[in-house]
Amino acid sequence: MSGFHVSEDGHVVNILPPIDLNGGKTSDYFSLKNYSHASIILTIGVNGGGASVVTLEESNNNAGGSTTPIAFRYAAEETAAGDTMSALIDATSTGFSTHATASSVTYCIEVDGADLSDGFPYLVLKLATPGASVIGSAVAVLSGSRYAGSTTPTAIV
Fold first, then answer.
1. Residuewise pLDDT in 10s, the chain (157 residues)
2. Domain assignment of residue 149, yes or no
3. Separation of alpha carbons 44 and 99, rounded Å
4. Which residues pair with 33 in a beta bridge?
5. Do the beta carbons of residue 91 and residue 74 sit within 8 Å?
6. Residue 35 lies in a domain
7. What domain range includes position 49?
8. What are the phi and psi torsion angles at 75 (to 5°)?
9. 98 near 107, Cβ under 8 Å?
């Protein structure tokens, strides 16, 4: 075996299937209880001319019982169909804004489980309304599994 096999060495969680972000969207909650890192890949497909503020919150359960916005790091690729990410950028708990007009852009949000508060292993991605039709989706790729193998443990319960 060579390389990183996402399906065995990581765990993929489709936290926000492709959808119009207008009106604002909240992803599914997922847990880092059994993982040490999350890379959240946010893609913007067609942008009708609006920017969305992206925030990340930690929670004590998978239903948002108690949530707190957190700081995180992210990289951006904001050129159409490009594949060269920026250096990591520090985002405060107030998040960052997506590109206001570009389509086919990608953001990669990086979070270490060690940076979460004790008793708050769940994460949720929130996107504020862009005020226009903007199609987006997000997938969390979890790594550093406590129980690695051919089948990885769920992260949504």
1. 577 778 878 899 999 999 999 999 999 999 999 999 999 999 999 999 999 999 999 999 999 889 999 999 999 999 876 899 999 999 999 999 999 999 999 999 999 999 999 999 999 999 999 999 999 999 999 999 877 667 777 888 7
2. no
3. 9
4. none
5. yes
6. yes
7. 6-143
8. -120, 150
9. yes
CA-based max dimension of the chain: 47
Can you tell me whether residue 9 is helix, strand or coil?
helix
104: left (phi over 0), alpha (psi -120 to 50) or beta: left
Whether residue 155 lies inside any domain: the answer is: no
- Give the number of other Cβ atoms within 10 Å of residue 106's Cβ: 17
What residue has token string 């946010």? 42
What was the pLDDT predicted at 1? 53
Residue 8: both structure tokens together: 């065995």
Indicate the residue type of 8: E
The CATH number that applies at residue 29 is 2.60.120
Q: Is 30 exposed, middle or buried (0-12, 13-18, 19+ CB in 10 A)?
A: buried
Write down how long the chain is.
157
Residue type, 146: R
Please tell me the total count of domains within the chain.
Answer: 1
Query: Residue 151 domain-assigned?
Result: no
This prediction's pTM: 0.94
